């Protein structure tokens, strides 16, 4: 059976980022830049004052100097002419510094009366002047392609006069739940059946990862029904299936999709929960076949679906970030499959992050998954450890789960 790292590598190797689309700046936060943002202007465009006060020549600006105020230039209203020796211009924060001036004396250090300003402090060359291009110049690359746009980035792009940005199209992710026992929430539930939590949990997760989910109708445990449902995903960037991935007589997802040309890349990985994970490509659409058990489906979505969607969005598709934590209980030796124990986090008295796994860890237990803050990673064949040992965890909410 494949390791988690190898499986993720094989998934990512098959995926290409979506093409670009143009979006208004107001909708760009959180999107991935498809082209660098190049500044369309120089900021500030001219030398401007950083303070409210007087533009003067540093050569004239001795303490006690008396200078003639020849104009007033509020921000947005530059002084028309050049400023000569012995002269000053009244300025405000953001005002253009007039030609001939090279320093600002703040108004707290000056007194104006009858058109004359008397300086109490000496002015120094360049003092309180923001030089043209201090922030950036026209033609500068301000943001690289492949960056997830933050609110700060949006501000920078706006400052550089970009009303529109080129970003990767959000990938469309089709979600197909399979099984005779499955009903959608609110529908009649077959005898002994179960409501499809997977469809909606996956849809929410896809959205959190930057994709656009499309929930397909549930397909029955029937080869032709699964093949027909797959047709609906023909234009998706990724198809996620759940259920029917294992070895049972009615686990027909592989057969159904094979009828539509599925080329299987791998099936089964050395992990728990989620052993029967399947990956392949069907008519150019990558297909990630998740197990039906709700916890297995979501853990596989975290470890493989999230990087896949991120790769489609134009990002690297990194593994979910891990961090160290102190485990409050002893852990038994692990078998050959990497394990992911659902657990809660807290801070110890010494401030260290502490993690406590739940007792039973069955892959059907959604309430526990919802209550968990993190999963504890157990490597294949990890030895038993005593309470207090350091382990690695993945935080769930931080990953969108
Ligand atoms: N003999 C073996 N049996 C099983 C093995 C195995 O290796 N040998 N693997 C087990 C493991 S591990 C898992 S995980 C499951 C995965 O099975 P499937 O992917 O084929 O899933 P189903 O059998 O269709 O369903 C499993 C379980 O999950 C429920 N389910 C299915 N779809 C949904 C949904 N959309 N929302 C909520 N719950 C769903 C379904 O009713 C079943 O209870 O196989 C083990 N068996
Ligand atoms: O791997 Mo299954 O996902 O153990 O329940």
From TrEMBL:
Give the pathway listed in the UniProt entry for this protein. Answer: Cofactor biosynthesis; molybdopterin biosynthesis
This entry's Enzyme Commission designation comes to 2.10.1.1
Query: GO: which molecular function terms?
Result: metal ion binding; molybdopterin molybdotransferase activity
Using the record's annotation, list all stretches that form the MoaB/Mog domain: 174-311
Alphabetically sorted, this entry's keywords are: Magnesium, Metal-binding, Molybdenum, Molybdenum cofactor biosynthesis, Transferase
Q: What does this protein do?
A: Catalyzes the insertion of molybdate into adenylated molybdopterin with the concomitant release of AMP.
Q: Which family does it belong to?
A: Belongs to the MoeA family.
Query: What is the protein's name according to its record?
Result: Molybdopterin molybdenumtransferase
Q: Which organism is it from?
A: Acidiphilium acidophilum (Thiobacillus acidophilus)
Tell me the organism's taxonomic lineage: Bacteria, Pseudomonadati, Pseudomonadota, Alphaproteobacteria, Acetobacterales
């Amino acid at each position: 059976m494949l390791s988690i790292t190898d499986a993720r590598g094989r998934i990512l190797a098959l995926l290409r980022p979506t093409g670009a689309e143009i979006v208004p700046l107001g909708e760009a936060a959180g999107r991935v830049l498809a082209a660098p943002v190049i500044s369309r202007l120089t900021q500030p465009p001219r030398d401007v004052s950083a303070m409210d006060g007087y533009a003067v020549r540093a050569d004239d600006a001795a303490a006690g100097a008396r200078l003639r105020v020849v104009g007033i230039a509020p921000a947005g209203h530059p002084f028309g002419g050049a400023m000569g020796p012995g002269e000053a211009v009244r300025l405000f924060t953001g005002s253009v510094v007039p030609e001939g001036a090279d320093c600002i004396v703040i108004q707290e250090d000056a007194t104006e009366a009858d058109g004359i300003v008397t300086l109490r402090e000496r002015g120094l060359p360049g003092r309180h002047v923001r030089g043209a291009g201090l922030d950036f110049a026209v033609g500068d690359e301000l943001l690289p392609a492949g960056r997830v746009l933050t609110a700060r980035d949006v501000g920078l792009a706006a400052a550089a006069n970009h009303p529109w940005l080129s970003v990767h199209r959000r990938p469309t992710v089709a979600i197909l739940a399979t099984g005779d026992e499955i009903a959608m929430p609110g529908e009649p539930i077959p005898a002994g059946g179960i409501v499809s939590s997977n469809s909606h949990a996956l849809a929410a997760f896809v959205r959190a990862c930057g994709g656009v989910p499309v929930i397909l109708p549930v397909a029955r445990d029937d080869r032709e029904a699964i093949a027909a449902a797959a047709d609906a995903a023909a234009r998706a960037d990724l198809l996620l299936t759940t259920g029917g991935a294992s070895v049972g007589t009615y686990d027909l997802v592989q057969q159904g999709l094979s009828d539509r040309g599925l080329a299987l890349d791998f099936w089964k990985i050395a992990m728990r929960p989620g052993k029967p994970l399947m990956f392949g490509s069907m008519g150019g659409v990558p297909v990630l076949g998740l197990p039906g058990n709700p916890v297995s489906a979501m853990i596989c979505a975290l470890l493989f679906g999230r990087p896949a969607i991120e790769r489609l969005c134009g990002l690297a598709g990194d593994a979910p970030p891990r961090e160290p934590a102190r485990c409050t209980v002893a852990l038994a030796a692990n078998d050959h499959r990497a394990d992911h124990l659902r657990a809660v986090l807290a801070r110890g008295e010494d401030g260290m992050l502490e993690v406590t796994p739940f007792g039973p860890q069955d892959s059907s237990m959604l309430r526990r998954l919802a209550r968990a803050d993190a999963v504890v990673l157990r490597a294949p064949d990890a030895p038993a450890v005593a309470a207090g040992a350091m382990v690695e965890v993945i935080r769930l909410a931080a990953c969108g789960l």
